[in-house]
Amino acid sequence: MFNNYPKCPNCQYQRDESDKLMNAMMCPACGIIYDRWKAKRQTVKPDIDEVEVQLTMSLYESLKDCFLSVPHQVDGMVFKGRVFAYLVIIIWGCYFMFGGIDWQNIGSSFLHNVNLAFHEFGHVLFMPFGDFWMILGGSLFQVLLPLVVMLAFSIQQRDNFGAAIMLWWCGQSFIDVSPYIADAQSRSLPLISGLGKESHDWGNLLRMTNNLHNTDFIAQSSFTIGCCIMLLSFIWAGALLLKQKRVVR
Description:
Elements: H1 34-67, H2 76-99, H3 103-107, H4 110-125, H5 131-156, H6 160-182, H7 201-208, H8 215-245
Helix pairs in contact: 2-6, 2-8, 4-5, 5-6, 5-7, 6-8
């Protein structure tokens, strides 16, 4: 019966015969001007969408420029050296990944001694924050340091290939920690401090957080995270080498 009367697009009020004396262009219920309301909705929303798209594209381009940029020219010998380094981290990474959480396999690597030095420094660095953070600080600093160096390579030095190698090191550090976590219940691994089982970092951490029953899960999670980070470093470094190949002189 009232099909000839407009319905308010804002409040959905349906005009009827009783509203014929009211302004035909204004909603009697909420007071909007139909044409102005529609025009505003049509112009503002595309503007917001356009801004969101521009911000997304700008962020994408910034990240791409930061982490995928390569030099305009690359010396041939330098490129070959990077290809060699790439093969080394792939082979070495596979050695760790396929070896599983095995102390003999992981602890016998010279890289374990490198990680151990930073691990011990982490305890000292986090000591002012209390016992829990002092204990966790060893493993935490061990895995965070490569990420800090990675950002320095990428942002400050503009050396993304070096940054990818540092990301690989971060993954290896997670793998390096996993046997220590797995040993939390038995506490059978030899400790550098020589203080005995009571100074076992992860034995204490998991006891303090009532997570000793989750030892295997946490150790496996650390190992899996390390493997995933290593795989990401392979992809990143490989993509950079493909881009550098085009500018070798």
